[in-house]
Design a protein that fits this description.
two-stranded antiparallel ribbon; Hypothetical Protein Ta1238, Chain: A; mainly alpha; 5 helices
Length: 191
């Protein structure tokens, strides 16, 4: 279990930080950018959670996903390495993505098919879920940029983020009275 006795370490005062394996790097390192954006997505999901009733099934599912995102951040902050370690880093598991896919299929079965793109909004919870979706997409881009720059990333990380953004889209529609309160895009519509 994690124990935090001190909140500030002063390491960041010079623009540096430590990864999960205790190597020091710049705060603008692509790996730090990636897991920082995952943290931002998690916070946005938290905003959506508080906009839902506690008895709404999405509340529990999204809270579970927030825990997954901490796992994902822990995975990202410890680069994969061939070097032996005295401990086993936490890694995302394919089963976590399978759970998202099952949830997407279950929720999507309750929705009518789309006949237009929809605008982010409708209701408060839905708008917050759309915001979380766009931040998750940015996190996905940060992870692929890290990979393109030669950063080692657990394969399950990118798959999970890709599926999560899909889930957040479907969840936003569910939060919009199962799609009935979705706001459709009207191409070329001027105010």
């Amino acid at each position: 279990m994690v124990q935090l006795n001190r909140i500030y370490t002063r390491t960041g005062d010079q623009g540096r930080t430590r990864l999960g394996d205790m190597t020091e790097t710049d705060k603008h390192d692509p790996r730090v950018e990636a897991y920082g954006t995952v943290d931002e997505a998690n916070a946005a999901i938290g905003l959506a959670v508080v906009a839902l009733d506690r008895d709404d099934p999405l509340h529990a599912e999204l809270t579970r996903i927030q825990n997954d995102l901490f796992d994902l951040g822990a995975d990202l902050c410890v680069p994969e390495s061939e070097a032996p370690r005295s401990w086993t880093p936490l890694r995302m598991k394919p089963e976590q993505t399978v759970r998202l896919e099952t949830l997407i299929d279950t929720l999507n079965a309750r929705l009518n098919p789309l006949d237009s793109f929809i605008l982010p909004g409708g209701g408060e919870a839905s708008a917050r879920l759309h915001l979380a979706r766009t931040i998750t997409r940015r996190a996905e881009r940060c992870v692929t940029a890290l990979m393109a720059a030669g950063g080692n990333v657990s394969p399950a990380v990118i798959t999970y983020l890709n599926r999560l953004s899909d889930l957040l889209f479907v969840a936003a529609r569910i939060a919009n009275d199962e799609g009935r309160a979705d706001v459709k895009w009207v191409p070329g519509k001027a105010p």
